[in-house]
Amino acid sequence: MKITIAGAAGGEVTGSAYYVQTARGRVLVDCGQFQGSRKSEALNRPPTGARLKLDAVLLTHAHLDHTGRLPLLAQRGHRVPVYATQATIEMTALILRDSARILASDAERKNRKRERAGEPPVPPLYSPQDAETAIGLLRPVPYQQPVDVAPGIQAVWTEAGHMLGSASIQLIVDEDGRRKKVVFSGDLGPRSAPILKTFEPFHEADMVFVESTYGSRDHRPFDQTVEEFVAIVRDAIQAGGKMLVPTFAVGRAQLISSLLGWMFREGKARPFPIYLDSPMAIEATEIYAHHRELFDDEALKYIRERPLREDLKSMKLCVTAEDSKQINFVEGPCLIMAGAGMCTAGRILHHFKAHLWKPETHVLIVGYQAVGTLGAQLVGGAETVSVYGEKIAVKANVHTMGGFSAHAGRTDLLAWLEALAPARPQLVITHGEEASRLGFELAVRERYGLAAHLPRMGATLEL
Questions:
Q1: From its phi and psi, is residue 255 left (phi > 0), alpha (psi between -120 and 50) or beta?
Q2: How confident is the model over 42-89, as pLDDT tens digits?
Q3: Residue of 52, 54, 64, 57 lying closest to 8 (CA atoms)
Q4: How far apart are CA 7 and CA 33, in angstroms?
Q5: Residue 454 sits in a domain of what CATH number?
Q6: One domain, residues 400 and 410
Q7: What's the CATH number where 370 sits?
Q8: Whole-structure pTM over 0.85, yes or no?
Q9: Domain closes at, from 386, 404, 422
Q10: 317 partner at 20 to 30 Å CA-CA among 76, 118, 309, 406?
Q11: What's the Cα-to-Cα distance from 176 to each of 22, 24, 152, 154, 190, rounded to whole Å?
């Protein structure tokens, strides 16, 4: 068996993809888009090149850095089944359509400039039709049940606790009279996070690929982050400023909405205007509502007591661009959730342009910010940033709230690995910046005595 790492390696966090080749079958585990800096985005091409042979694609979850190159496969004529949990299928369709729309819009804007400069137009990375073709290949799988995905290869999906429908995947490979098991963690969620169930680790593996986004450190405890969040909201209300939350439409928008509803229900703050300024987040929230079987017991108990929408009567759903523009004329304190989560595009940029330079504004960073993004600049303390080519002073109060991250910190990553450590598997650490990978490799060696590979992009491992 050969496994080629076609993304999220060598210090790169995005673009997750693993090409598994056996004597009889070939599958791709995830097919993610590279995001962040121009250097990262330049890597976006079909995994392992044009001569890729495939029986199937298996998805751990729907985020773009795990699904965003699926339309490129469709573009190159691949028509193999793409297996994922039902919730992941619904979220992937939402995310790929949104990505194709943004790519088309970006290409149109660039080509207007190229036309004025007398340069030929350039196509988007992929088209809406490419995205629709990829969506049409999605096939649902259950949790915890082996599925035949290729000759001699079965796959099992188990809860990863990262986002709705997320999973870790175990491949069971029969080859030359022997059986081997390979586990891919996907992205793992923190055990303290609300709404979703906690991850369920596998117990058997000959080789394990584990993410390390926060492998070198832990987040601030969730309950402490909630206290900080409440304090920031109260301060902003008193100052009369706007709270801007760059929001990943899937996961963070639902978490922040739930926390605000809880604050109002518990009397932590009087209801104030909230704007969910993201059509994609609105659709994602509807998908959440249809998959309560994936909620943890505490979340189910909470919504049985009273529907969350009754606590969020002050929330306005902003679907159209005109809805979004009207927010700028709102007086007094309010909270605005808008995409994109890494501040690379979307409506949040318009709100930044209008409010980043105001000292009464609060910016709440509630998710991972890839190197090179505007979000990373704000986290790094930039005094000025460029928004749509205009220099904007950063006078706003910027708060980094790592405790709201959808990624497990070092302690939780080690806890997930604990169930597999007695099998003494070959360990491969990916999906992390170099400091995170090195820090996690040291922690694993000290805790479990396991050596780990830290592969470069394009490396091929044999089992």
A1: alpha
A2: 888 877 655 789 999 999 999 999 999 999 999 999 999 999 999 999
A3: 64
A4: 9
A5: 3.60.15.10
A6: no
A7: 3.40.50.10890
A8: yes
A9: 404
A10: 406
A11: 10, 10, 10, 15, 39
